[in-house]
Write a structure and sequence with these properties.
Number of helices: 7
Strand content: 5-15%
Number of strands: 2
CATH superfamily: dinb family like domain
Order of helices and strands: HHHHHEEHH
CATH class: Mainly Alpha
Strand order of the largest sheet: 1-2
Number of domains: 1
Largest sheet: 2 strands, antiparallel
Mean pLDDT: 96
CATH topology: Four Helix Bundle (Hemerythrin (Met), subunit A)
Length: 169
């Protein structure tokens, strides 16, 4: 049996976003327990030239909603990037998961050769659907989730691989 475009994307995106939300819940509790203003963690970054945690979450959700919508041939939902708290970031993740759950396999399967055009950093990028999913969307998805995880771990949050991977059953 071959792996479909839907199977290679939507279930993993939902799983990863749920894990990310759980990590943010732990970060919220950590900030409260340690009496750290949430904004310190929400605005934390690994290096001065990297995006802060809030922007990492915004990007990962944008990558997923844009990627899924383009592959499904539907309009990309738009959300302003205004989150300043863990609760707001988790609400954003919930919105993206809800959107992903509206997409059916029939909308995404067969999109391997679909022409995908987008602008990134002022550059026009052209892809075929499968290349777009495997070489752009999925790597960006995991990069920004991993960076969010690393920012929080660097700032003392007690999380590990199990938090990143979540329930594998």
């Amino acid at each position: 049996m071959s792996l479909s475009m839907y199977q290679a994307s939507i279930p993993s995106f939902i799983h990863g976003l749920n894990n990310l939300s759980a990590i943010l819940t732990k970060a919220e509790a950590y900030a409260a327990a340690k009496k750290i203003d949430q904004s310190v963690l929400v605005n934390a970054r690994l290096a001065p030239d990297m995006f802060a945690l809030a922007r990492q979450v915004q990007i990962v959700t944008d990558i997923v909603k844009g990627g899924a919508a383009r592959l499904a041939g539907v309009e990309i939902p738009s959300f302003p990037d205004t989150e300043t708290s863990f609760a707001e970031l988790k609400t954003r993740i919930e919105k993206i998961i809800a959107f992903l759950k509206t997409l059916k396999a029939a909308q995404i399967d067969g999109s391997e050769e679909r022409a995908i055009s987008l602008k990134v950093g002022g550059n026009d990028l052209q892809f075929k659907g499968q290349h777009y999913l495997l070489q752009f969307v999925i790597p960006n998805f995991y990069f920004h989730i991993t960076t969010t995880y690393a920012i929080l771990r660097h700032n003392g949050l007690d999380i590990g691989k199990k938090d990143f991977l979540g329930d594998l059953n």
